[in-house]
Amino acid sequence: MSDRPSRDHRSDDRRGGDGHRPRRPHSGGRGDRNERNGRNDRRGRNDRQDRQGGQRSHAQRGGSDRPEKFRSGPQRSGFREERLNKRLSEPDLPDDVDINDLDPLVLQDLRVLSKDNADAVAKHMIMAATLMEDDPQLALRHARAAKDRAGRVAVARETNGIAAYRAGEWKEALSELRAARRMSGGPGLLAVMADCERGLGRPQKAIDLSRSEEARELDAESRVELAIVIAGARLDMGQAESAIVTLQRLNPDLNSTGPSAARLSYAYADALAAAGRTEEAKEWFRHADKIDEDGMLDAAERLNELS
């Protein structure tokens, strides 16, 4: 990947202060989805994660702790020992973790589990979200613990995928996000999945994802996020002009406002700079900095570098 790819994801601008609180998996272009769970390619500052909103599918019903009589077949040799060892190695949960801090829709999805297990999963998910910014490796351990306890619940798989993504574990992230998408339906976190392909050094596969049937199901904001990732993939391949064209299709506007517009303006400036169109890049970095109310972008620093 280029040393300064287009600013994609890797930080959650889910404005409103709930940080990386897990939400129900995205199942198709609707809801309050601010999908920023991802790998932001800008340097410095807070990284941005994602939000999920969607509908639970029947595939989620029946958590990993279902009574044995409901299982479809015999357990493999060593299953109980393996599960016990995993639980013994789980990171500790602070006493003050309140499951009510979790999104109510997520709590609803966890009701397929026994109460004790659902509470443990909820607490691990809360800790994963809480730690994702400052300690992504520990956050990933909590997310894995939640997934191991609730492997058939889509939001647990998605949380694991997001945490793996934030920790730079691209292969694991991609696998978990694919699993969550299969369970919940819809396009899933397509922009994050595409960015994982970039992280794995496969920018063409990221571009291919943008041409998939699932990409057509994305809502407007999610299309912006995917385009930003695809522009970054083009830059990874040394195709600055193609990156510019990708972003121009979204009609970047110097009169635009809002977090999504700020990220789009930044990505557009980045592509212009890579193409040697310095004066235009400066104009767009200036605009991105102006409308970046949360201070999530390093547009001012990029502008100074070009001056």
TrEMBL record:
InterPro entries, alphabetized: TPR-like_helical_dom_sf
Coiled-coil zones: none
Database matches in Gene3D superfamilies: Tetratricopeptide repeat domain
Start-end of Basic and acidic residues biased regions: 1-20, 29-53, 78-90
Region (Disordered) location: 1-100
Name of the featured protein: TPR-repeat-containing protein
Species lineage: Bacteria, Bacillati, Actinomycetota, Actinomycetes, Mycobacteriales
